[in-house]
Amino acid sequence: MLELKGVSVIYPDGNLALNGVGFALGRGERAALVGANGAGKSTLLRAIVGLLPVSGGEISVDGIVLSRNTVPEIRARVGIVFQNPDDQLFMTKVSEDVAFGPRNMGLPEEEVSCRVDTSLGRLDASHLRDRISDRLSGGEKRLVGLASVLSMAPSTLLLDEPSSSLDPRSRRNLIRLLSSLSQTILVATHDLDLARRLCSRAVVLRDGEVCAEGSAVEILTDEERLEMYGL
Amino acid sequence: MYRRDSGSFVGFGALSGLNTLEMCAGRDTVIHRLHPFVKMAATIVYVAVVVSFGRYEVSALTPYFLYPAILVPLSETPPRILMRRLLPALPFTLFGGIGNVLFDTEPVMSVGGFAVTGGVVSFVSIMSKTVLSVSAVLLLVSATGMADLSRQLVFMKVPELFVLQLVLTYRYLGVLTGETGTLYEAYAVRCPGARGIRMGDTGAFVGALLLRSIDRAGRVYSAMKCRGFSGAYPTPRRERLGAGDMLILAAVCGAMIIPRCLS
After folding, report:
1. Searching chain A, which residue's CA lies closest to the CA of residue B230?
2. Taking CB atoms and an 8 Å cutoff, what residues of chain A touch B145?
3. What is the DSSP letter of B59?
4. Which residue has the higher pLDDT, B21 or B71?
5. d(CA B259, CA B263)
6. Does B22 contact A93 at a Cβ distance shorter than 8 Å?
7. Best-predicted range by mean pLDDT among A96-100, A117-121, B102-106?
8. Among the ranges A164-178, A182-196, B113-127, which has the highest mean pLDDT value?
9. Which residues sit opposite A214 in a β-bridge?
10. Closest-CA distance of chain A to residue B227, Å
11. A contact test, residue of B21, B227, B229, B240 with most A CBs within 10 A
C-alpha cells in the first residue's frame, strides 16, 4: 500500500515542484499519474523512493514512513523503472543486471539465480538472459529494466513513461504484462490510452498539485476536463 | 571519421566493440569451463613472462605464440574479431618502436648477408610483445566475461571501489560512444557539408557531451541506489578452486616459465 499525505518538494533553486500532494493506493491497485510536462510526475516518483528530499508531508509504503533511516527498506519494497532504460541497465550482461538488486539484498546465490529466471520468464524475456545489455533493442531494454526491478519482488512498482519509444506491438505486450502483475502500480505517463487500459484510477497533477483524482475511464475520456488539465 | 556503424565514431568503435568479445564469453568450451582464477592467473603469468624478455631476444619469444594459437580454437574465439580488437593497441607501440629503429642503428645480427640493426630487432620485439600480451588479455575477456573477471578481482582482494569503477567504465564505453554518435548526428544534420566537427564548435560539442555524461551518471547512480546499492560491488559466493584447476594452472605456468628460464 502506498500513501502520500500533503507531500511537498522544493528544488534547491526554490522551485516548488510538488505542493501538498496526497492520495493513497491500496494493495494491488493500479493508478495512472498524468499531467502536462513539468507537472511534477517524475519528481513525485523520485520523491517516493527517497531520491529527492521531501520538504513537507509524509510518504509511507506498507505502513513504513519514508525517512532517512527507512530509505533502504522503502527501496526494497518499491521498484522504480526509469523513463530511459539506458539509465536503468548498467551491468554488461542482462543476467548480471537482473541479479544486481537481489544480490544487494544479500540473498543466497541460488535464490538470486531463481529470481533472475523467474522475473525474465514472467516477461517472456528468458532468451535475453545471456545477452549484452548495450546490444538490446529499445523494447528489449524496457523489458529487462522491468525484470531488473521485479527480481527484487517489490510490493509497489513506479513506472516512468513505460511506453515511450515502444512500437505498437511492444506497447500492447507491455500493457498485457503489466496487467498480469499483482503489485501496486503507479504509472507516470502521457499515454492516456495505456493509462485507461491498465489503470482503474487516475491522479491528475497540474503545477505540482493534484487537480483531479478518480476513475481512470471517467477522467481520461472527458475531453473537456483533459483540456482544462492541460492534457 | 564518423561511421554509423553501431552509432559510433570509428576511433571509439574499437572500444565499444569489446562487447563483441564479451558475447563470446557465453560459450561453453573447455576454456570457458575453467575456473576464472586459473585463466586470470595464467594470463598474468603469461604477460609477465613475455614482457620479461630483453629487447633483442626475439627468437626466444617464438614459443609463446603457441599460447594464443592454442587458445583461439579451444575457446572458439573468432580470430577476425580478435584481430580487429587487437589493432587499436598497435599504433601506440608502433610509434614507440619506430623511435628505436631511428636511434639504435648498431648492427646486432646479420640475416642473409644483410646487417640488421638493434633498432629493427627491438622494434620486432616490442611489436611481438604487444601482440602477445594484448591477445592474451582479449582472450581472457572472451573466455571469461567481465562479470566473472571483476568478481575474481574482488576475491583477489582488489579494492571493491576499483572493481566497480572498472565494471562501470567498461559498460559505459559503449553508452558514451553511442551518446557521441547521437550528438554528432544532431550536429551533422544541421551542418551540411562539414567534414567532422568544426574547430569553432568543438568546445560546445565536448561541453555538451560532458554535461550529458554527468547527467547520465547521476541518473544511473539513482537507479543503482534504488536497487539497494550501498557502495559495495555485489558478488555471489566464491566458486571453490578444485585440485584439477590447480593442476592445470601449475602445468600452464610451468610451460610458460620453464622455457623462459632455459632461454
Report:
1. A104
2. 92-93
3. G
4. B71
5. 6
6. yes
7. A117-121
8. A182-196
9. A202
10. 5
11. B227
Write down the pLDDT at residue B4: 39
For the purposes of burial, counting CB atoms within 10 Å of the CB of B198, is it exposed (0-12), middle (13-18) or buried (19 or more)? exposed
* Contact predicate B155/B238, CB 8 Å: yes
- Position B6 scores a pLDDT of 38
Which conformational region is residue B40 in: left (phi greater than 0), alpha (psi within -120 to 50 degrees), or beta? alpha
Looking at the DSSP bridge assignments, the partners of residue A186 are: A31, A158
**Residue entry with cell 628460464:** B261
The C-alpha atoms of residue B66 and residue B147 are separated, in whole angstroms, by 27
User: Residue B41 CB: number of other CB atoms within 10 A?
Assistant: 18
Q: What are phi and psi for residue B82, nearest 5 degrees?
A: -60, -45
* Pairing relationship of beta strands A30-35 and A78-81 according to DSSP bridges: unpaired
In the block, residue with C-alpha cell 599504433:
B91
CB B255 within 8 A of CB A179: no
Q: What is the ipTM of this complex?
A: 0.74
- Please check whether residue A219 is in contact with residue A212, taking contact to mean a CB–CB distance below 8 angstroms: yes
Neighbours of B206 (CB within 10 A): 13
